[in-house]
Amino acid sequence: MRLKSIFGALIAAFALQGLSTGTAAEIRLARQFSMGYLQLNVMEHQQLVEKHAKALGLNDVKVSWFTFNGPTAVNEALISGNIDVGSGGVPGLLVLWSRSKGTPQEVRGISALSSQPFLLNSRDPAIKAIKDFKDNDRIAVPAVRSSVQAITLQMAAAKTYGTKEFAMLDPLTVSMTPPDATVALLKGGAQISAAFSVPPFQYQQLEDPAVHTVLNSFDVMGGSHTFTAVWAPAKFRDGNPVLYKALVAALKEATEIVNKDKVAAAALWIEDSKSKLPLDMVGKIVAGPQVRWTLTPEKTMKYADFMAEVGTLKTKPESWKDYFFPEIHDEKGS
Fold it and tell me: DSSP letters along 235-246, please?
């Protein structure tokens, strides 16, 4: 089922059911598979939402954490009322904002989380650029047609073949979790030819000398760009103003903590994901030269402009501030 049909059905259900946010002292947050959510790891381990809620007079706040693969799963959970706060790549936020705009449940971004590249890796020496993919090749992405990797691949195709051919590589994509895609790529064989992945898995893949990078998302976006963001419905924000304020404060403190001690943050990710990767490797990824842990949205309008041009977005925003809540508007976003 295409994105338009999926989200059309979801928004209809949203309108009929409304969003259940539980009690005023409850918040349920979701993240995905990658190291793009370190602030959320820190917030969970150090109970920062609870800390800031208590400082604002809310005691005994219940905070629950969930992990999903891909933006569709996150947004389905958000719309059905099973979570209150979602997170993922910018396209997931944009699609849901576009389809909920103007309703009481309008979804907007709370903040960005990180700016960092994701890599399209392959072990086929014949694949040096996206034009080298053949009809029998398969490209693993977290979610076909909806993940930030899938949309970025469309943008790369549009640059190579022209905007009308933006979906040219879509038939080659298959949905796989980043850990599963990494196993498949390192194993070799015909299951997949390449993986458009996330850190740290994309770097784990490159530990194999037979694997090389075909495409860096920074090349597509023209430099550093937001990789992950966090979002929520206006109904949750408006109905829980004190708890929402505590959430924003927790995000700010968590970002400061990550930037102060990146190795400690890497250790938390290893613990949460039960990863067997060495701390030295994960720590270097967290502190990488192209990695920034920041709440400021960066180049998000590039995704919005492209998705509106090809018809993925129902509504084209005039500014990044259209799809982020006011608490972040003082940042120099884009």
Answer: HHHHH-HHHHHH
